Amino acid sequence: MDKIEYVYTFGMDAETIDRRLEENEVGVLALADDSSAYAVPVGYHYDGASLYVRLATDGSSTKMAYVETTTDACFCLYSNGSSDESWSILVHGPLRKLTGSKRERFDAATLNESFHRLYVFDQDVEALEPEIWELEMESVTGRKRGE
């Protein structure tokens, strides 16, 4: 009889979680509206204390409709590369749109330096408005494959 194969995983320490968040540029942001979920890959920036996601809207974005209704968002970053290097990080918390001087900190040059290129699909680039949202890191967990 065939058996299901298992791999033990273990918690990641805070230093490893910070390093992984700093080394990568794209993760998956999960949003919700009542019983309906929506997950989308997003560019993000982690500065060692805060996690920022860059979203773009032309006024008719599904993700922006979900952002408005999400109370507690989940950000997932993972690698399933080689069998001994698989890991995942989950960050939970509310999203807050940056405005005023906090938003001005991310001008065009800083956006290009801090975030992965912005991918667009069938949209007028001139009509897109990038928005920066901070994910309050209320809960952060990391798991890695065991030795």
UniProtKB/TrEMBL annotation:
Source species, domain of life: Archaea
InterPro entries named among the record's database cross-references: Pyridox_Oxase-rel (IPR024747), Split_barrel_FMN-bd (IPR012349)
Pfam families cross-referenced by the UniProt entry: Pyridox_ox_2
Protein's name according to its UniProt entry: Pyridoxamine 5'-phosphate oxidase family protein
